[in-house]
Amino acid sequence: MPGFSTLLPRPVSVTEVPGSCAWPAPVTVRAAPGLPAEGYRLAITPHGVTLSAADPAGEYYGRQTLRQLAGPDAFRAASIHSGLRLPCGIVEDHPRLGWRGCLLDVARHFRTKAEVLRFVDLLAAHKLNVLNLHLTDDQGWRIEVPRFPRLTSVGGWRRSSMVGRHDGPERDGRPHGGFYTTADLREIVAYAAERAITVVPEIDLPGHSRAAIAAYPELGPDPAADWQVWTSWGVSTSLLEPSESTVDFFRTVFDHLLDIFPSPVIGLGGDEVPGATEAHGRFVRTIADHLIARGRTPLGWDEVLDTGALPPMVIGAWRDSAYGARAAELGHDVVLCPEDRLYLDHRQSDHPDEPIPVGYLHTLEDVYGYEPDLAGPRLRGIQAQLWSEHLDSARRVDYAAFPRLCAFAEVAWSEGPRDFAEFLPRLREHHLPRLDALGVEYRPLAGPHPWQTRPGVPGRLR
Ligand code: ACM
């Protein structure tokens, strides 16, 4: 029977009592409004469990903790073992940060609806509570917008893709695409909500927009040009043309987005806009104002701080923590997602077999050692990022995300101090078996399985 010391993320406090309880156990749920938000208290006796929770999220997390205590087999899709037991005792727990996010880029490589739902389950098992869904980029547009069908009929697929990080003309010649219908997205939102997860959608503008421009060339800088959904990775210099008609177009797109996603926070991008003019900045601010007028808070990447005076927003500080501090000083809320610490598409070792190694080296220990360097009421939380240029399947997403996302989840949920020497055996002996039972193809601690390598496909290190 796994003990309380196996839990991940580590709870705030545990009192062990001799004895055990058969699992599945009767669970009596009590409302406990005095507990912290998302908090719960479990009292496990030989006769059953009392789960007190501040709110539905707290109740959900209490049940996740029980599942971990019941052992890895409790993570299988069907019950194939009898005799599972829970240890008796009391767990009192709540998260330290209110935004425990993960960005999933479904624009560069589409993830099917079923794959997104599975990913939601994996986030929920780690008590993460925000799925930041990156729906549009130069290489693909993934959300159906009924008024503008070419966004998905044209923008929803590309002919070919750059092979690894090879900047030459080489392409794989393989069409790639897909998009979500309105009903698909409503289903994802509802499924996530049942698991205490808010889906924060992002439509990225005025850069990262070549799929939209390919669909409607009048949105771009040269309507007469032969625009294609981009087959390269990198930062495109082709921006949306910030004309009144483009602004109107995107007001309509965002209104559709708001109709689907109840999230109080809505992403509008704003990152990596080489050659942006004053008018591009006004475009971003106009869309931000539009979201605010409809009762939402815009989320922009930290480059938006350079566009001039902004209404209060949430800033995703990704380039450098100094941008987080600057955003907070300017009165914005902040989500820290530093590229040099929390980009999980970046390589996880210097092992020569690491598949398509890109970016900074972020080992499991590095991620576990991350500590937000901003405090105070402006810090909403932290977010790990899974950009998908080189994650072309759900299996590759598993490999990049896990087990580093387990370490991230503990940083987001549990107060320090943290000791990697304590975490590592807990992960290896108790949590990886849970992932095995769930069917997660994580990166083995010793390095990739042979079939997880990508010999001959170039990466690019930083
Ligand atoms: C980003 O990585 N461009 C937010």
Automatic annotation (TrEMBL):
Domain Beta-hexosaminidase bacterial type N-terminal, residue spans: 31-94
GO BP annotations of the record are: carbohydrate metabolic process; glycosaminoglycan metabolic process
Glycoside hydrolase family 20 catalytic domain: from which residue to which, for each copy?
Answer: 99-415
Q: Name one GO molecular function term.
A: beta-N-acetylhexosaminidase activity
Pfam families found in the cross-reference section: Glyco_hydro_20 (PF00728), Glyco_hydro_20b (PF02838)
Locate the active site: 272
- Catalytic reactions on record: Hydrolysis of terminal non-reducing N-acetyl-D-hexosamine residues in N-acetyl-beta-D-hexosaminides
- Gene Ontology CC entries for this record: membrane
Give the UniProt keywords, A-Z: Glycosidase, Hydrolase
| The enzyme's E.C. designation | 3.2.1.52
Asked if the record carries the keyword Magnesium, the reply is no
Keyword Nucleotide-binding included in the entry's annotation: no
Q: Report the top EC class in one word.
A: hydrolase
Family, according to the entry, reads as follows: Belongs to the glycosyl hydrolase 20 family.
Report the protein name in the record: beta-N-acetylhexosaminidase
